[in-house]
Predict the structure of Reverse transcriptase domain-containing protein.
Amino acid sequence: MAIDLCHSAFPIKGITIAHLNICSLRSKTNDIYMILQSNSIEILALSETHLDSSFTDADVKIDGYRLFRRDRNGHGGGVAFCVKDNIPVNVRNDLIWQNIEALWVQVHLPHIKPILVGCVCRPPSANTQYLDDICEMLDAVCDQNREIFILGDFNIDWLSPNCPMYKKLKSTATICGLKQIITQPTRVATSTLVLSATCIDHIFTNAFEQCSKAVSVPTGCSDHNIIGVTRKTESPKGGCKIIHKRTYRYFNQEQYVGEIQGVDWSEVRGDRDPDSALNRFMDILIKIVDKHAPLRKRAVRNKSAPWLDKNLKNVMLSRDNAKIKANISCELADQKQYRTLRNKVVKMNRKKKKEYFQEKINEAKNDGKKLWNTLNQIMGRSKHSAALYVENDGVFITDPEGIANYFNNYFISKVEKFRSGMCPNTSASYDAILSKIMSEKNHSVTFSFSQVDRGSVGKILAALPDGKASGMDHLDSRLIRVAAEALSFPIAHLVNLSLLQGIFPEKWKEAKIIPLPKNKRATFTGQNSRPISLLPLLSKVMEKIAFEQVYKYFFSNRLITKYQHAYREGHSTCTVLTHMTDNWLEEIDANRLVGAVMLDFSAPFDLIDHKILLQKLECYGFTPLSLSWMGSYLSNRKQRVFFNGQYSSIKTIHCGVPQGSCLGPLLYSIFTNDLPFIVKHSTVVMYADDSTLYCSAKTPHDVSNLLNHDLQNIGKWVKDNKLALNVDKSTSMIFWKRSKLITEPSLNLSVNGLQLRQVMQAKLLGVTLDSYLSWSAHIDGMIVKMGNGIAMSRKCMSYIPMSIAKQVVQSLVLCHLENCPIVWSSASQKDLRKLQVAQNRAARTVLQCSLKTNVALMHTRLSWLTVDDKIKLRLTLILWNAVFMKQPQFLSEQLVFVGSGHLYATRQALGGDIKLPLPMTNFLKRTSFYRAISIWNRLSVSSRRVQNKYKFKRTVTQELLQMTS
């Protein structure tokens, strides 16, 4: 009997559990896909997967199944499970013996107790101790008092009862109450006129009475048979992802826009109530939208191997039948026929896969989004779907509506739990510190919202991006964008009505929450999830208008502290890291020691207290009407979780700024704007919710005292502002000269009575800091990422032309060189050379050339700068921003032009040199500021005077390329 592509080898009713020694899963996902689909196998154990860390789960993803794997640390080996999406399972790491190649999962089925299923692989060369360890593991598993299924390649022939290992394994199984239920050969080795049939793949179970007859079925993709058994029970319902999506099958844009243009909006214009006017508008719009692009419920089923057509399936079936015939007859001609068909399947699969992807790439060559979707599919970077079940305190929930309600309750209760532990503080006053901020700016300014015209609204509507998921309004951006001109008139009325009356419409306050797993390999739980908030599309238009006005007010009046680098023009994670590391190196140069604390806040955006935020906005000059609008915008917000086609019940949000909004992050920056002003001895530098406190002194004792004093102030500030500091994740570090740090000084820092952990390395904003600021650990991490990117890129090189290959490598490999090079480029030349070697490998990947190819020639052909030249370019660009754009502020304030007598660039000084600071040691020379000035002063005068950023970049790049060639 062979694996039939139309008929299952296993009983249909129940849960089928099977095993196959696949002998490398890397190139056989098509075969596994066909076996799973044609036999309705719910759980497939795989041994000899031959996977390692260079292969992601997406590389061997089977649609409709989740992969659980345990790779061998050495060559070959490896075990895995393919489990149907709707079967709740969790990995039992507590049952895994480190010295045994095994993996255990616990399966949760309707109306029966959880079942333990294990996959074991015993190598042929394993000694008797390995078998002893397996037997010990079986004893431990049987103590769990569960139904047990143990499948695997034990390499012990069950048809040889005189074998000592057979006796040992059978004796242990009998003692444990297990029965081996595979009685047919599972591997038939054939050579000329010789047949060797062995039963080395086994299934042990203590639930054999609840199972159908076990089978052993030959398959052409492996020299082992697939073995399996069906557990008689009720199968879980479901099995595919359900989404709500509009269909554009019969969409006619001209007719749709024409109908929008013909609408009489007088009822909307005449309504002076924001909520009522919006309801009228949405009733009219949705009626038209539903007519032209109706909303449909769809089951998402992605085909794992779309190139797997009928012809290839037939050849695969012929191969399987040829193998059976060869095993039975032992004829040389039959064996030759099997090998011929086996090789034909491999060649056909490669050819059809290449033709399929080349056709897809040609179709998408002018569409970047479609092109990258195809490239990601080739490289195995396609998005993983979440499991169709969740675990709550050991109980699995499979009902979509129940799951949606579980997540909604979890997300709301998580915030409420933080809030319940906070003491109500009615005595805290924010006037003094905020008044000080306002007085320092010499401003007595006020803020009020201004009305917007139809043209401004139309520009925002026309610029709405494609491909974004819709919120509770189920409006796609495409439907608004194509009719932007016609819709700008009523939407402008709704916006102005909201701003003039200080009321944010209720319909725009409801968020649609999509829960996604943080760790896709771990069980899907509330703790292992992150909520993605989708707001109504038109609410984002309203927010965009409000954001632009609030942003302009705060930044034009310089009310946002210069220590906040997020959400402001000319600033980034790179500038905040440059700000801090340059300061640290300057202090070390002055023979001082630097102590730093990386503060971590728990759910900071979700915990913003509305009353406190409104008090702060009032101090910053917001008028009563603008405060009324902000209060309406923040209050009475609601959310519903959407999971697999079902919505949860609605819940009210009592605090926090809206997630998924553009206005929310700005409001968070305003809320925390006073944090740098409450410390006396230290500096606080922020990027959104990442805050770092640091100071310097001559001795560790002095640093500790200064930091502890300011940490007390921060602890009080956190309580007064009803935020939550995560002390467990907050860390401290000390920075000093390598020669001085023979033993690391202890800072002994604490906040609110809780000790802070001191570390030698920490990751901050994507960059790994070490106590010596050597950047060695960070660069080692970059090398690993670049190597993984090169390996990923090579997967698609045979399908794409060189121009696209260059894009792929730049996006997956060279992108890591663009992450804060200004900061880590002060590393040693030895470490920087490692990056150049990695870039050389990337160039060879694109050009498909040998190791002997000249490096300079490769870079010239690709128009790539060397790593050293890229660093020089980035350093000159940040200095150009400081000279001409006065950004970032901390850098521009330090500039002194030689001979100008000014701290800024006069017209006469633009072509001159910038004064270098005087270093005491090489530490100051390692600052980004010093290195940038050194390079800037070597540029030609004509280059320094270029006041257009893009022209300046082209000019400097050309100079560097000429030097390389």
Q: What stands out?
A: The CA atoms of residues 910 and 945 lie 6 Å apart. Residues 1-6 have pLDDT under 50 and may be disordered. The chain has 31 helices and 32 strands.
